[in-house]
């Protein structure tokens, strides 16, 4: 088992790769998944954000009271003293995001100007320049005034009460809105699903880089030549290299899975036992894909820096197309078509279906197993290519194989 021990020592001599790719990226996934909101809403009811506002009503007319009553439906009113210092403190200390000052006689002056088509009187507003809340509330006020002006101009005999009533009726009209859940049910269990989806980047980057470094070291020309002439059977050598690579993959995979199960134990408890087992199986099947890619890169003689670059690029691209960065259903249809040819799509499908599994039956389990089977086909296909490449490389002149012997004979 000397080759196996050398393979493991080679990986351990590069601890930064494990710390950065396996450790840091996994912890980043934990932080992101913990910060996101999953579930927590009652049905599909939409709850708008309520802005804190204050109204200084120096007019006390029916119009100013109607405007104030409407604003109470749009936000949360706070009491602010009618003094310059209090108004400044309310904005500076964040007590009020928007303060509206209605001058005395504004209601009557507004109605008269609207009827005559003259310039409307103005109200003073105070809100912070670095917040959009006050600006949005000011737009609501302007919309209210615009409707009131139009009605007062058309109905010259309308009183302030009539103007307020009509404006409230118009402002009450709104388009129906509903929330649509993308990518499965919304629950706390989705936090663990997202962590595993993010793990596509972690697994790809860490396993490809570590296995790539291992294979690059063992496939150096001088070391490869010594192995070819050593008494160690080629089958034993290959099995020991494969065992070393597999151990690296299992270590990274176990770290990712155990971290997710520990941190998101509450989310895991909401998943059925069969569903959780299938999610773990899908994660293991997916981890074998970067293992085969790393083995292929090693057989191609890709260097350490190139393995780093390819591991990161492939990890980001595949995780993006698998829905880790943005919900898959929100991607462009052309991008979705491309994603079908990559393993992360089948991995995401398996995870989501397993997380939603409530009753284990052939109709619910077989599609998940089919997704896992597709991922294993990716592994087998890439590994087969790697074996062919490795065989050709052994026979090449650089490796000292048959081509090298032929070249030496020709020179002689």
UniProtKB/TrEMBL annotation:
<keyword id="KW-0812">Transmembrane</keyword>
<feature type="domain" description="ABC-2 type transporter transmembrane">
    <location>
        <begin position="28"/>
        <end position="387"/>
    </location>
</feature>
<keyword id="KW-1003">Cell membrane</keyword>
<dbReference type="GO" id="GO:0140359">
    <property type="term" value="F:ABC-type transporter activity"/>
</dbReference>
<keyword id="KW-0472">Membrane</keyword>
<protein>
    <submittedName>
        <fullName>ABC transporter permease</fullName>
    </submittedName>
</protein>
<dbReference type="Pfam" id="PF12698">
    <property type="entry name" value="ABC2_membrane_3"/>
</dbReference>
<dbReference type="GO" id="GO:0005886">
    <property type="term" value="C:plasma membrane"/>
</dbReference>
<dbReference type="InterPro" id="IPR051449">
    <property type="entry name" value="ABC-2_transporter_component"/>
</dbReference>
<keyword id="KW-1133">Transmembrane helix</keyword>
<dbReference type="InterPro" id="IPR013525">
    <property type="entry name" value="ABC2_TM"/>
</dbReference>
